[in-house]
Design brief:
The structure holds two protein chains of two kinds. By secondary structure, chain A is α/β, with parallel strands linked by helices. In chain A, strands 2-1-3-4-5 form a five-stranded parallel sheet, sandwiched between helices. Chain B is 52% helix and 14% strand. Chain B is of the alpha/beta class. The chains are: A alpha/beta, B alpha/beta.
Chain lengths: 154, 210
């Protein structure tokens, strides 16, 4: 098990941004990167669910919002974020209504703010998983106790 | 079942009455003419399912109201309805207000209705999960108690053991006879250390001395 706080996928068509993102945050998080939406989906199929996917909005092929909308349908627990140099109204509204993003960040990012936000996003994901596990475990325990109780009675 | 409660915030009277008329059949509707009034209502009313706000109002803005709503009424979903959209306002709606939907005015009742239905569903799902979590915890505690009581009962029954007066063997519940040590090992947590008592020591010594 990694001691890092959570698995984060960053998607951007510019290599320099991918390198930058990884170098900035790899001390705290387990970072995966992809150069396009298509690559990101392939990576998710291979590596499994992430705590957080951060995507650039404007990329050749699939846009960030299209990618995150698809990821939302596939693994709804994964937290979604857009980082974009643009704040075009139409894109912003779609980020809410289609991708249901957790945050919309403007490039160039400020490191401390990005780090804090990613930490919060990963924490939110972890909490959700913990609650899920707790419910599942509780259900199992209950079934077991029921069984042992019935067994003793019979 | 009670109708879900919605809080609608808009500084224009015509929009409030319009919303009220459109949705009053399906929902219980609370209206606020300003952000300040909305905050008062949120503090007072505990079971809001959804808060819908206009962005541009005198005083507190819609994005600010919804950001505060996250703290005051965290169980309620949030929707922004607005005629003017500045990128910064929308960014604030996402990053501070964590809104579920962003609807442009003039709203089409079909689009808004669907957004409201989904938001209320989401609210109800969260509430149900929360209730389930509590119920599960309670049920588990009850069962734990029950099992403990039952175990105690069984222990008490087991403590009345038939023992042979001559060879000191114990009879189990399947009518088989076991040596004391074997029986204790199988049915209790007791560990043994083997020694010899003075009485037996003398007996054994006497037997083995030629």
């Amino acid at each position: 098990m990694s001691t890092k706080k959570g698995r984060v996928l960053y998607v951007d068509d510019e290599e320099i941004n991918l390198v930058n993102f990884r170098e900035t945050l790899c001390d705290e998080f387990e970072i995966f990167t992809a150069g396009s939406g298509k690559e990101a989906l392939a990576l998710l199929a291979r590596e499994g669910e992430m705590a957080l996917v951060v995507s650039d909005q404007r990329m050749p092929g699939m846009s960030g919002i299209e990618l995150l909308t698809e990821i939302r349908a596939m693994c709804p627990d994964t937290i979604r974020m857009i980082i974009s140099a643009y704040t075009e109204i139409h894109e912003l509204i779609e980020a809410i209504n289609k991708a249901e993003v957790y945050r919309y960040f403007v490039k160039p990012w400020k490191e401390d703010q990005l780090r804090l936000t990613i930490g919060n996003a990963v924490g939110t994901y972890a909490l959700g998983q913990e609650i899920k596990q707790f419910v599942e475990q509780g259900r199992k325990q209950m079934a077991e106790r029921m069984r042992s109780f019935e067994g003793e009675k019979g | 079942m009670n109708r879900p409660r919605l809080l609608f915030i808009d500084d224009e009277e015509i929009n409030r009455s319009n919303f009220q008329q459109t949705f009053a059949d399906e929902y219980e509707i609370l209206l606020a003419g300003s952000g300040e009034e909305a905050l008062e209502i949120m503090t007072r009313e505990s079971n809001l399912a959804l808060i819908l706000s206009d962005q541009r109002m005198p005083g507190i803005s819609g994005a600010e109201v919804l950001a505060l709503a996250r703290k005051i009424a965290p169980q309620a979903e949030r929707i922004m309805i607005t005629g003017y959209s500045e990128p910064d306002d929308i960014m604030a709606a996402i990053n501070q207000g964590q809104v579920y939907r962003y609807i442009l005015k003039p709203w089409i009742s079909g689009e808004l209705r669907i957004a409201i239905i989904h938001a209320v569903e989401r609210h109800q799902l969260k509430q149900e999960n929360h209730a389930l979590l509590l119920a599960l915890e309670k049920k588990n505690t009850e069962l734990e108690e029950l099992v403990r009581a039952r175990t105690m009962e069984l222990k008490n029954l087991q403590s009345l053991l038939p023992i042979c007066s001559y060879c000191r063997k114990i009879r189990d519940d399947k009518n088989a006879w076991h040596g004391l040590e074997e029986y204790l090992l199988r049915h209790t947590d007791i560990l043994f250390t083997h020694g010899i008592c003075p009485h037996c020591y003398e007996k054994v010594m006497a037997e083995n001395t030629p």
